[in-house]
Amino acid sequence: xxxxxxxxxxxxxxxxxRISFPLGLxxxxxxxxxxxxxxxxxxxYWLQSLEVEQLAFILINPFLFRTDYELDINDEELRxxxxxxxxxxxxxxxxxxxxxxxxxxxxxxxxLIINRETRIGRQAILTDPRWKTKHDIMDELSAxxxxxx
Length: 149
Fold this sequence. Notes:
- There is one protein chain.
- 12% of the residues lie in helices and 32% in strands.
- It is mainly beta and 149 residues long.
- The model has no long low-confidence stretch (mean pLDDT 92).
């Protein structure tokens, strides 16, 4: 299928890249259909709205920079998207890249959880005080590297 994207213009996408969020995302509850695209720069991805061309989110796998990341999510929330366990889940954090040169951050408090088999997702809200909406990705990566040395 052809998809108009914010980052790349018109692109060809496979139906298997389509992700449905029946409840939408926080602040964008009315938008339910997205497509997951690889970004030109790894380890990032684009979550592009299929309903609004100018709406796209940059995503990252939070475990890449926080190996201690834990998701304490109600089993009912996982069942709502057809997940029986974590082995079939994709987990992403929404990235913010401020235009003023401030550090790039990731939202670890509101992860996106996607059932990789059904391609249905939801945004969870974690109550663990360790996880905030703005984690400096470069600082966290640096701390992780130093801890592993």
